[in-house]
């Protein structure tokens, strides 16, 4: 963003961030005016991404407006190393699926994707220098530190594979090889970030800053996870499925703590509306094909969230701050059913362009099928009765035998001196035509 002070840039970069480590180093780069601050956000293409990804994807818009050079890493090697969450045969397809669907989601949010640099991890993580640094790092890191660093991210098992222990080290090295000033991720990445701050200087590399966003709670109150279908809402869920999942979310009247629906509004829906409103205020043109309104066009300026209600129940509500919404809910001025419906409507509107892409783009559907073959509908196999091999020549192929036609089956049976009895057809014979039908003149 041109024309704002380093302090304002820093405020925009850290707005809504749960925790910032090394903020002074970032502010110093901004104040020196010698170059843009550089960052990366990475994701390992394992399970299908869900609406929890809306939090970091929306935040990328703030970085871009603050003049940050942003790289998005599709960490395919990490995906394979994470205790075989993604078999190596599927990693390539899943990385491409992630790339296409996350770009589509960012367009739907209003993030200018043409300003982002997309990087595939294997494009540099298989190089000689990178691998040598992995070995160098292994000479410093203990098994205890590696396991501790990945505790919140890498799948934990009783007997961890060596691949999972390598994961934190690779993520630390990414900061150097992507040439960034800070890494952005969820608060669940904190231990890996601290690992990077401790060990990169031992390799002679500079310590980077780290920014963390809060995790989006799932609809059942736990962390939203790709591996837990009940906790997540997929980007390709239908409006009906979205409404059903939100309807089942924990949201008791007047209860604010542990309320996943309110948390989703605060962490996801309101920041998206804010990014869009600011884009319009700055004179940016939003792509109407991709950016679908989540609030009505006649809503008051600055509206971030909207609840549609009949006049007999108090009329529609418009909120420009989360605090006012939380206060109204706590005082039971807003009913959980109205809140859930509003969230479902807003989220469904946001995701319409993404789902349209899925419906219309055959190439994308093929990539999805290759990336997640287990998610594709299975064809029901016709049960074929077992036939005694002794009599197979007298039975049709369609019934589990060897004969192509009834004539062939009969000839085989007679040649062997066996009496042939054709299999009875299933079902009732058609009823004879009524007298009215028989008397119809078909020439009329």
Automatic annotation (TrEMBL):
- Chain residue ranges for the region called Disordered: 407-444
Could you tell me the superkingdom of the organism this chain comes from?
Answer: Eukaryota
Q: What is this protein called?
A: Tyrosine--tRNA ligase
- E.C. numbers: 6.1.1.1
- MF annotations from Gene Ontology: ATP binding; tyrosine-tRNA ligase activity
Catalysed reaction equations from the record: tRNA(Tyr) + L-tyrosine + ATP = L-tyrosyl-tRNA(Tyr) + AMP + diphosphate + H(+)
InterPro entries per record: aa-tRNA-synth_Ic, Rossmann-like_a/b/a_fold, Tyr-tRNA-ligase, Tyr-tRNA-ligase_arc/euk-type, Tyr-tRNA_synthase
Main localization, broad class? cytoplasm
**Which is a Pfam family this sequence falls into?**
tRNA-synt_1b
Q: Which organism is it from?
A: Malassezia vespertilionis
Q: Where in the cell is it found?
A: Cytoplasm
UniProt enzyme class: ligase
Keywords from the UniProt entry: Aminoacyl-tRNA synthetase, ATP-binding, Cytoplasm, Ligase, Nucleotide-binding, Protein biosynthesis
List GO terms (cellular component aspect). cytoplasm
Swiss-Prot/TrEMBL GO biological process terms: tyrosyl-tRNA aminoacylation
Q: Give the UniProt family note.
A: Belongs to the class-I aminoacyl-tRNA synthetase family.
């Amino acid at each position: 963003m041109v024309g704002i002070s380093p302090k304002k840039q820093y405020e925009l970069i850290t707005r809504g961030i749960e925790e910032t480590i090394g903020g002074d180093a970032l502010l110093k780069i901004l104040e020196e005016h010698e170059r843009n601050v550089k960052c990366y956000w990475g994701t390992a293409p394992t399970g299908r991404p869900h609406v929890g990804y809306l939090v970091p994807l929306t935040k990328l818009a703030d970085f871009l407006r603050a003049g940050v050079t942003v790289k998005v890493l599709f960490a395919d090697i990490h995906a394979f190393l994470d205790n075989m969450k993604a078999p190596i045969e599927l990693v390539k397809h899943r990385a491409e699926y992630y790339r296409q669907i996350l770009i589509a989601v960012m367009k739907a949010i209003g993030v200018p994707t043409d300003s982002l640099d997309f990087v595939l991890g294997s494009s540099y993580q298989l190089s000689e220098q990178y691998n040598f640094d992995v070995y160098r790092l292994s000479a410093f890191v203990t098994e205890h530190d590696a396991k501790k660093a990945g505790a919140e991210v890498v799948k934990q098992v009783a007997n961890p594979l060596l691949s999972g222990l390598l994961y934190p080290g690779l993520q630390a090295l990414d900061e150097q090889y992507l040439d960034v000033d800070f890494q952005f991720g969820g608060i669940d990445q904190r231990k890996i970030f601290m690992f990077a701050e401790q060990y990169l200087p031992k390799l002679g590399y500079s310590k980077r800053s780290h920014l963390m966003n809060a995790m989006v709670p799932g609809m059942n109150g736990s962390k939203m996870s790709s591996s837990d279908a009940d906790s997540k809402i997929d980007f390709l869920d239908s409006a009906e499925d979205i409404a059903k999942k939100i309807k089942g979310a924990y949201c008791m009247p007047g209860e604010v703590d542990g309320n996943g629906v309110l948390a989703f509004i605060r962490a996801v829906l309101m920041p998206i509306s804010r990014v869009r409103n600011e884009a319009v205020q700055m004179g940016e043109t939003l792509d109407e094909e991709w950016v679908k309104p989540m609030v009505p066009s006649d809503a008051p300026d600055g509206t971030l969230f909207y609840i549609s209600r009949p006049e007999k129940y108090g009329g529609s509500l418009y909120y420009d701050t989360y605090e006012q919404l939380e206060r109204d809910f706590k005082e039971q001025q807003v009913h959980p059913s109205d809140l859930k419906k509003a969230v479902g409507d807003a989220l469904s509107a946001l995701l319409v362009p993404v789902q349209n892409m899925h419906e219309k783009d055959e190439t994308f559907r093929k990539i999805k099928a290759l990336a997640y073959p287990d998610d594709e509908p299975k064809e029901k196999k016709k049960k074929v009765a077992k036939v005694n091999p002794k009599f197979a020549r007298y039975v049709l192929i369609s019934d589990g035998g060897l004969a192509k036609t009834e004539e062939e089956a009969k000839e085989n049976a007679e040649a062997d001196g066996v009496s042939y009895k054709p299999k009875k057809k299933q079902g009732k014979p058609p009823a004879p035509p009524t007298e009215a039908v028989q008397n119809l003149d078909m020439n009329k």
